[in-house]
Design goal:
267 residues; mainly alpha; two-stranded antiparallel sheet; disordered N terminus
Length: 267
């Protein structure tokens, strides 16, 4: 039978082990969870006024739906302005027109001129699509809106125009949210806007169901095919001219025939 000393000793050692074990458990529980990587959109801030309590301002990230809606409306507006041949200072909150801004605007104008018959149908201020019943800016609407290649290309050109520069103050006014909590913008702010542009052209469009990379390949293939067809037409035209020249040779004097024959060889 164990002595009282042995019982007391075992009991006390058991009691002493509990605090240590509890400390270890507390340390384990206090280890922070893995920090979630912020998306390009979540790096921005949008102040929201709250009714309760009064004058309290809540800070939150803009929603992707808000950005989609704003950019689709901006694309429509750009088409309407292009149709009027207006100067681009009414679009994008630009205070001055830089050479890059003007280059991007001219690219938009050229594309609109080539595809006016399609794009004008999508420039309505109403939240609707030609021959469609959807009337909101949800994902289903976006898929229908971007269904036409001409609209997607016009959208991409509009985004390039909108991000002609990374003027943080201008972009904050344009999007109505902030890239930082102060007015002292840094290089990090410019990087955030650049990431947002890439997010719009890649992640956002992929979520809707389209990718510009695939379309770029298709466009290049079409352009290559058209270039080959154009070369064939040129060759046919040259052959036609040669044939017409030879037909005239027989009715000309011999010295003229020789001269025309030399020209034919040069061709």
């Amino acid at each position: 039978m164990p002595s009282n000393d042995q019982i007391d000793s075992s009991t006390s050692s058991s009691e002493e082990s509990h605090p240590t074990q509890k400390k270890q458990e507390n340390l384990t529980q206090s280890v922070p969870k893995a920090i979630k990587k912020l998306t390009a959109v979540e790096k921005f801030f949008k102040p929201i006024k709250s009714k309760k309590p009064q004058y309290h301002i809540k800070i939150s990230s803009p929603k992707k739906e808000y950005i989609r809606c704003k950019l689709i409306r901006g694309t429509k507006k750009s088409i309407r302005i292009l149709n009027k041949s207006s100067f681009p200072n009414k679009l994008g909150n630009f205070e001055g027109i830089s050479p890059q801004t003007l280059t991007n605007w001219n690219a938009m104008m050229n594309y609109f001129t080539e595809n006016k018959h399609v794009l004008k149908e999508f420039s309505s201020t109403q939240n609707k699509i030609p021959d469609k019943e959807i009337r909101s800016y949800n994902l289903k609407f976006c898929k229908m809106f971007f269904e036409r290649l001409e609209v997607r290309e016009a959208f991409m050109l509009y985004i390039e125009f909108l991000f002609s520069d990374y003027d943080c103050l201008r972009l904050c006014r344009e999007f109505n949210f902030q890239c930082c909590r102060t007015l002292r913008h840094t290089q990090q702010c410019g990087k955030r806007w650049e990431e947002l542009k890439n997010f719009i052209l890649n992640d956002m469009m992929e979520e809707i169901g389209f990718t510009f990379e695939e379309e770029k390949v298709v466009v290049e293939e079409v352009e290559e095919r058209e270039e080959k067809e154009e070369k064939v037409e040129i060759i046919k035209e040259v052959e036609k001219v040669r044939a017409e020249s030879l037909m005239c040779v027989e009715i000309q004097p011999k010295w003229i025939q020789k001269m025309m024959f030399k020209e034919y060889l040069i061709l």
